[in-house]
Amino acid sequence: MNRREFVKTSLLGAALAGVAVAPLRTAIAAEPLKVGVLIPLSGPAGLFGPSSQNCAMLAAKEINANGGVLGRQIELQFADVGGPPADATRAALKLWKGEKTEAFIGMHDSAVRGALTNLFKGQVPYIYTPVYEGGECSTGTYVLGETPNQQLEPVIPWMASEKGADKWYLIGNDYNWPRDTNAAAKGYISSSGGSVVGEEYLPFTADNFDSNLAKIKDTGANAVLITLVGGASVGFNRAFASFGLSAGALRLGTLIEENTLMGIGAENSANLYSSAGYFGNIESPAAKAFADAYKAEFGADAALLNALGESCYEGVKLLKALADKTGSLDAAAMDAAADGVSYDGPRGKATMSARHVSRDIFLAEANGNQFKVIKTFENVGAGNNCG
């Protein structure tokens, strides 16, 4: 007997026996909502994994305490997607088809995102949360992360006028996020009166930067845009300072968050800047409340709060907001209703437009092993990604 026949027979038998059937209906409706959370727990971006996991768990706990999503309690299912896209695809497929996962939150690199959108093909809601290069418009995919339009378009002109940055060297890992980010950066640099004096891309495994630093010195660059990931960023920035370049050239990172800064070290952080939609020490009531809740849940020694981890918290919040508006978890229904969906989070109120969100962007300067926000650019749009 299959499940449908069993339930039908059970309900009929209960009715004939004069037994109330509401409890059985409630039990069926209240099955947990399995949500896959795809984050790097290994590999170059593995240092972002613990905070991402914590933040997703905190969001799920808060939502479950208030009734869950469509009356169902969230059950998070974590998978490590810190390796090659093919490995990430297998992990996601196992959750989706094997574990019957009904929605996905992804905080991982763009190469993995491309593999997953090709896997899902709009059949399941997929919320992509981290900083990325822009242009993602796949059916059923909703983007929370900052784009170059947000992180660089207002920041590079400010760096030019306030810090004299006009000779830029671009260095990143060799995949689409750094390359596409730098393609956009070139336009912002040019329009602000600057020039690009060097550009190169390194494998994730790079651990010796002597030749790169020699090139930077030879070009006379007074600004370096860094799109290296995780361990590569830590190693490069340490070497940059030890090479004696930090006094003569500023560094701007779009993926340098609190964990990366801690790895770089206070002694290597002079003249280092980061552009992001969130930092762990933002002084707004919503951000403070979030930081307090995080500390209460995970303790003072928990993984440092940062933009990438916090984005997973918002990813779970967005899933609830989309489901609440549509009354379902159907990706096609969510697509039709996504524009105008909003929720409140640590970064403030977020509202979707063309499946992206506008953000306040914070430019922060490293102050030892902490960031200090020195400039806020309000409500910066994500750009024309799905026009």
Please provide a written account of the structure:
Helix 3 runs parallel beside helix 13, helix 4 (85-98) runs parallel beside helix 5 (110-120) and helix 10 crosses helix 11. The longest helix is centred in the last third of the chain and has 20 residues, at 307-326. The chain has 387 residues and is α/β, with parallel strands linked by helices. The chain has helices spanning 3-16, 22-29, 49-65, 85-98, 110-120, 148-151, 155-163, 176-191, 210-219, 231-242, 258-264, 285-298, 307-326, 331-337; strands at residues 33-39, 74-80, 103-106, 126-128, 141-143, 167-173, 195-202, 223-227, 250-253, 272-276, 342-345, 348-353, 356-357, 359-367, 370-380. 42% of the residues lie in helices and 22% in strands.
Quick description:
The chain has 14 helices and 15 strands.
Rg value: 23 Å
CATH class of the largest domain: Alpha Beta
CATH fold call of the largest domain = Rossmann fold
Q: Give the SSE string.
A: HHEHEHEHEEHHEHEHEHEHEHHHEEEEE
Unreliable stretches covering 5 or more consecutive residues? 1-28
In CATH terms, what is the architecture of the largest domain?
A: 3-Layer(aba) Sandwich
Give the number of helices: 14
Distance between the termini: 50 Å
Quote the average pLDDT.
92
Q: Largest sheet, order of strands side by side?
A: 7-6-8-9-10-14-15
